[in-house]
What does this fold into?
Amino acid sequence: MKKIALTVAAVAILGLAACNKPAADAGNDVNAATTELDATANEALVDVNAAVDATNAADAALDNAATAVDNAAAATGNAADAVANAQ
It folds into this structure.
């Protein structure tokens, strides 16, 4: 009976040992996951910076458009004054 119990225990231990990764493999998996996470974070940071740059460029373009509208309104007012003065 002891031989059967030892045989079953040995098979169970070998089965469990086969399921576990060696520590080096587990460490490599962690390092690979960390590297991938770092790369993803860096890509996200680049994307955020690009979005900020695009927002700043759009803001500058809107400011320039507002200035152009103000200048056109002033020119229209000056033209109206010139017409009134010419009469």
User: Anything to note?
Assistant: The two ends are 126 Å apart (CA to CA). Residues 24 and 30 are 10 Å apart (CA to CA).
